[in-house]
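Structure (tokenized):
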């Protein structure tokens, strides 16, 4: 069996219970309108874009890098927030700008003590988290608040680098070099990519690593969206753990050619 198929098989077996457990309601049979509406709003979609390989990568990085909290920007239906709480067994803080989505997420997350949906712009949320969490925390940050015309991504990264010396960031909807099968977002005609987003790695004391999926989009079990991972100040930890699931990533060496080009 090819390595990636094997990895997918292992990941499916490991994560199956979590995914099944969080299978959304398919039919609204509730007594009141809110429940019926809520059910239709939450139908469809698993966390981490439905990609069990991505979920495995997140869990592997979380453990290897010694992360202790999961932060997410862009809650939407809380699919990733809930899966992260189950998978990582840690506190989850997530922010949503749209009041209706936030309310839905809040209702959905209410039974789960570890999950904290905040109604806030992602940048305000991250600034708040830099005050609420210890400087010694090692957050895993999932940046997914890019839906509107206003792109908060660069500011989000700058806030993280100004607050913590060690953290892991995964940016969704990012262009994967050499893997055209993965989808990505485009802002003002420019893809989210190492050519448009700056990683200020010089702000942290220890070396950082930038990683992309090493697997093909065809092996993605979900929406086939691209992503990038940045292990800020934690490159040594990732380098020392090249077995599954971290062998699903390949390192991308940042060069001056990757510096965002002027518009
Ligand atoms: C792609 S969805 C997030 C999906 C979710 N992370 C998941 O994996 O299920 C993007 C969400 O980000 C929200 N959003 C957009 N801009 C935002 C901002 N500046 N701050 C917080 N949330 C934002 C949108 O309302 C939308 O619900």
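Design, position by position:
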């Amino acid at each position: 069996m090819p390595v990636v198929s094997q990895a997918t098989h292992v990941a499916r077996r490991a994560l199956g219970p979590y995914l099944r457990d969080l299978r959304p309601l398919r039919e609204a049979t509730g007594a009141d309108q809110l429940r019926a509406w809520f059910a239709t709003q939450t139908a469809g979609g698993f966390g981490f874009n439905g990609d069990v390989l991505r979920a495995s990568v997140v869990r592997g990085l979380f453990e290897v890098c010694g992360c202790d909290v999961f932060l997410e920007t862009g809650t939407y239906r809380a699919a990733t927030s809930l899966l992260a709480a189950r998978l990582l067994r840690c506190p989850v803080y997530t922010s949503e700008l749209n009041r209706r989505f936030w309310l839905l997420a809040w209702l959905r997350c209410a039974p789960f003590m570890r999950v904290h949906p905040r109604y806030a712009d992602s940048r305000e949320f991250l600034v708040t988290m830099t005050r609420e969490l210890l400087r010694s925390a090692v957050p895993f940050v999932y940046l997914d608040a890019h839906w509107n015309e206003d792109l908060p991504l660069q500011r989000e990264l700058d806030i993280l680098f100004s607050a913590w010396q060690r953290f892991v960031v995964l940016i969704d909807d990012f262009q994967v070099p050499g893997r055209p099968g993965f989808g990505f977002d485009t802002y003002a005609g420019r893809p989210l990519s190492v050519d448009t987003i700056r990683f200020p790695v010089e702000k942290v004391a220890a070396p950082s690593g930038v990683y992309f999926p090493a697997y093909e989009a065809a092996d993605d079990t979900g929406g086939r969206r691209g992503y990038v991972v940045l292990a800020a100040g934690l490159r040594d930890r990732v380098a020392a753990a090249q077995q599954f699931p971290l062998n699903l990533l390949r390192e991308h060496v940042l060069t001056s050619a990757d510096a965002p080009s002027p518009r």
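Reviewer-requested clarification: The chain has a mean pLDDT of 85. The longest strand covers residues 167-172.
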